[in-house]
Amino acid sequence: MMEYITPRTFLFATQAVVFSVLLFVFIVYYRTFFRKYVLYWLVSIGMLSFSYLIKALLPYTSANLANSNWYYIAEFILQTCQYAFLLFLLLGVYNAKTNKVIPKKVSIGGLALTIAVSLTTTMLFAFEPSQAFNHFYLTISLPSFILGCSFLALATYLLFDKKNYFSSQVLMYFATVIGFRYLIHSFISIVALTEPWFRQLELFLLYFDVAAHSILGFTLLIWMQGAERFAAINAINRAQYLGKHDSLTGALNRGQVMAKLSDKIDELNQVNKNSKSQLKLSVFLIDIKQFKFVNDTYGLKIGDYILGEIASRLNHSVFMPQAVGRLSGDSFMFVIEFEQVSHVDRAVSHIHELIQRTFHYEQQEITIQGSVGYCFYPDDAEKAEDLLQKANLALHHAETNNIASVAFEEGMQAQGRHLLLMEKQLRAALANDEFILYFQPQLNLLTNKLEGVEALVRWQHPEKGLLAPSEFLDEVEALGMHNVFDNYILAKACQTSERWFKLYQRRVAIAVNITAVEFQDERLVTNIQNLLHKYNLPPKYIELEITENVVMTDITRAMDSIVKLQSMGIKVSIDDFGTGYSSLAYLRELPIDKIKIDRSFIREVASNDSDLTIVKSMIDLSHGLGKRVLAEGVETVEQLNVLRHLGCDAVQGYFIDKPLPEEELVRYLKRK
What we know:
Elements: H1 7-33, H2 36-64, H3 69-98, H4 104-126, H5 132-159, H6 166-191, H7 198-244, H8 254-273, E1 280-288, H9 291-298, H10 300-315, E2 323-328, E3 331-338, H11 341-356, E4 359-361, E5 364-366, E6 370-377, H12 384-400, E7 405-407, H13 414-431, E8 435-444, E9 449-461, E10 465-467, H14 473-478, H15 482-504, E11 509-513, H16 516-519, H17 524-534, E12 542-547, H18 548-553, H19 555-568, E13 571-577, H20 584-589, E14 594-597, H21 599-602, H22 609-624, E15 628-631, H23 637-646, E16 650-651, E17 660-661, H24 662-669
Parallel strand pairs: 6-7, 9-11, 11-12, 12-13, 13-14, 14-15, 15-16
Antiparallel strand pairs: 1-3, 1-6, 2-3, 4-5, 8-9, 8-16, 8-17, 9-10
């Protein structure tokens, strides 16, 4: 056996070991970050390592098993490994550069093609073993030609790619050199195979390939390191962007547009003091008419597209707005600067034209209309919040009276009358028990069992039917009825839990959303204690959900409340995590049990590296602080699989189940 261990064999064996170690690094990297391109390169490096192992064994098989089936099998495997190495290298580069999902049929088809080519070339010289030249041409010249053309194509692709990072440039130069190496070798092997210097060239290329493949492996490692650095930077930038912008439309969120309006007011105050001309602001509130009908008729995807397109049209308006923001579902703010009132009249017409312009989506044409309410700075108000309130009153007047656009007037009391009427109806609804709870299941990813439900309120209106929270919670907030309303929901949740135990001998944790007003109420703990005693309910089956902003409103009081609730056995979780203003330092100090990642980060977690990095960081951070993690808004199996891989503890969303009335939730409660 020792006579077959030549320097060449030792070199091949060493390279097989080196690339096996590199393969292990790629495996660890993939299990950490779950990047698809790393998986392709992992397979590519694996094929390269195995090909070196086969090359190390070929001298033995050539001497002892020549012209036997085992020898031809070894040649077939070697050819397959070489082609598969190239295939998965190219797939990995394409996926890394475009971030596009490559269909499985492409990978499988490419692998089948490599096997077919390898099998064909092996079979051809297997039937004529005496034709040594045919053997050489089929196993050396042809693969060299294919590899050369492929590497030059890769170099060309990288040359014209816009995202030309350092590692990409290194790979481009490598592919160029190695491509010419294989092409030149392919032609020389055909015309100069019998020349005495050809064996010296083969020996030189042997060491050249070993060095080149080593450079390739480390280039891919540099690429992965750089890609993760860029992904981390993009994740930070995206997190900062989402803190200021609406994730769906890209417009400023409510907090930022109000801050920008305040800054613009301060700026105009300074300008007007030093100028004869008096600049003013006009604040427009825009609401889309019958937008629920659009969602119901065309689907949520088209509805989201329309909202994004509206934001884009407003941002690119010829009136050069000072601020554009999305305040709520289909409500936008549009702020312009003007000197003459005639400019405002043209702006109103322009806004309606932007909204009424036909939307085109997948061969569908959708036309909508909007209502506009507006007011002026400094004529109507001098503070941002007051301007918003005045514009909102004008908008409500426009919607109530079916008028396209209305300017604020001091005599407007429509909103006040509406609130008075709503207060009467809300209090009657509380007295008549017209509010009902829907429950959205929460799935434990470790046990694949129901671990709890989130209670979501609906109003069974005697005249209007079932109303969603968006149709009355704003009025509840405006009327300052949160305390009464939250206590009502808490009592109803405890009562429901008791009923489930009596009927099904089953207790399920119920999560209830608590507002800032209620959470900061000193009577909250006492109220919960009374409810637990009244319904004989163990504390661990009630969970309170608060937002980050609730905590940040009054840190000291929030911590005191959480500690008291924890001492009772009540679980407290942070809802919509990532969209507020919480500090990591405070998050470390808060004795909360669970963090719920907001759905805006989950929407593209399976396709967007930035969102994936953000979500992974949230999960790792939370687990490092000893807190469980639940992801909201899971709507696809791809999202579920990614979250499971990232170690998320639980999920909820429409993929698991929609919010269910109690009678439909029974099927979960009856399961053993």
